[in-house]
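Closing statement on the 2-acetamido-2-deoxy-beta-D-glucopyranose sub-project.
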Amino acid sequence: MGISKQLPNFSYISLLALSFSFYCTITPTSSTSLQHDFIECIHRNTNVDFPLEKTFFTPARNVSIFSEVLESTAQNLRFLTNSMPKPGFIFTPVHESHVQASIICSKKLRIHLRVRSGGHDYEGLSYVSEIEKPFILLDLSKLRQINVNIKDNNAWVQAGATVGELYYRIAEKSKVHGFPAGLCSSLGIGGHITGGAYGSLMRKFGLAGDNVLDAKIVDANGKLLDRSSMGEDMFWAISGGGGASFGVILAWKIKLVPVSKTVTVFTVTKTLEQDATRILSKWQEVADKLVEELFIRVIFNVAGSLGNKTVTTSYNTLFLGDKDALMKVMKRSFPELGLTRKDCVEMSWIESIVYIAGFPSGTPTNVLLQGKSPFPKINFKAKSDFVKNPIPELGLIGMFKKLLKEDSPTMMWTPYGGMMARISESQIPFPHREGVIFKIQYITVWPDSDKRPIRHIKWIRDLYKFMTPYVSSNPRQAYVNYRDLDLGKNKKNASSNLKNARVWGRQYFKNNFNRLVRIKSKVDPENFFRHEQSIPPLLI
Ligand SMILES: Cc1cc2nc3c(=O)[nH]c(=O)nc-3n(C[C@H](O)[C@H](O)[C@H](O)COP(=O)(O)OP(=O)(O)OC[C@H]3O[C@@H](n4cnc5c(N)ncnc54)[C@H](O)[C@@H]3O)c2cc1C
Ligand SMILES: *[C@@H]1O[C@H](CO)[C@@H](O)[C@H](O)[C@H]1NC(C)=O
Ligand SMILES: *[C@@H]1O[C@H](CO)[C@@H](O)[C@H](O)[C@H]1NC(C)=O
Ligand SMILES: *[C@@H]1O[C@H](CO)[C@@H](O)[C@H](O)[C@H]1NC(C)=O
């Protein structure tokens, strides 16, 4: 080959080499240099020191400690397998200014960042990115202060605190104050409230997102804002528009609500053989119309062994009042359940939190300070639906048949009505209000030893398809806190991602999606805060 032919080749290769080495100097290749640059940058951008040993975790330094921190609050084992991408390092800030510096530095160093409060995200979005590499994890678990002010009827809660800790700190100061957030004690305040957040007080007081007064947030420029400096648009967006789209919430100021000194709980279980279908039909007629002090959810499981399986339906209940009052209400509105006085237990509101969260009876309430749930972690996939007309018996029978085919299926039906129906669809981004009788959550779980996890995901997609005629449509509504990456899915094609976003956007937020997109374009036009289902900025 002649020189003239070699030359272009040669220069092409050296250009490649040059651009490669250039690439290497601006984009750190190992997590160690990545961490090094980040730490230096954090130092330059905050004047509050941080103990490196206790705030930075990399696989290079000690892989077992790194894994321990990564797994600490991650709830879904599906996203912790070896094949799942891992963060380059984990930073657990101990001061609010460290969060500001983190935003400034990850922007400057062009490192994608995920933020985690309680780690309950259904699709692992708070600790795994399957779309960007490398990424780092900003874990807020060390920012968990709670200041309850009974006199002014409010509290400031930092993002890393769990709802269980919040409930405990409220009850410590007053037996007649409470807060309407989630049922599971380990939920992180930071991520939880961003999706609305419901619990057993929702029929009386609405969602946690309906009861927030103020927030502290770090925006895409690393600025610390409160409600008045962020403005009402952004405050609206963060109180239900989903996590990690608008900024990092440092703390919420919440409004306390009154609870009665004595509440009553019960759980009554009916199998298919015990007339479960007929009783469930009746529940669908009354669930959203009962007095607002009464919250009866239904938990479905499969019991028995091969050839002898049945579906169990458990009516898991909180009543704000005493046993006598509850018995009267039940006789009048839902006698089909056959509730007896023996089934009922009177207790304080904080004890009912421990009961509804699923701890064994008699567990002391200070278990809530451990920030844990009573259940072991497992692999799971879940989906949600909203029901506006009672599901006919034929539908229920078909649904039971599907449940009986899966290893470990669960469903939870949550009653609406009451305060939920009185708040307008656009009050906060969470739009599932008047006309909803109940919400369905479908779950399937499997152990690590399962050789074919895809089987379970296929099963739940099939059940979801089967339920189509019985649930809301156009859009088929879904709960953003039950994040589901199946919705509007077409991951491979980036240019149609916006189209896909319109699909899940309407499902989670109905008409509020458009306003969320407008606010996103204003407060984070460069899309710094992004993940598989973050609110997209307008394409101009
Ligand atoms: C076992 C279990 C029980 C549940 N029970 C209920 C229930 O009773 N009621 C209910 O409403 N929901 C419930 N959920 C759903 C729960 O509300 C959501 O998963 C919620 O997002 C969890 O918040 P987190 O902080 O724990 O999760 P994370 O995984 O830490 O965060 C969830 C999302 O929010 C983002 N995020 C986290 N922290 C912040 C922050 N400080 N600022 C901005 N974005 C942030 C994350 O990046 C992620 O996208 C339950 C979930 C599980 C796994
Ligand atoms: C990692 O940390 C654990 C727990 O502190 C310790 O036992 C182990 O020896 C460490 N491993 C290395 C390689 O430093
Ligand atoms: C299974 O069958 C046995 C015998 O008929 C019965 O006693 C038992 O209650 C059944 N279990 C379930 C969960 O239905
Ligand atoms: C991706 O989606 C866009 C818009 O829907 C479409 O025009 C394009 O052909 C798609 N590309 C691929 C590779 O499928």
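The domain at 23-139 is CATH 3.30.43.10 (Uridine Diphospho-n-acetylenolpyruvylglucosamine Reductase; domain 2). With this model delivered, the sub-project is considered complete and its resources will be redirected to Aim 3.
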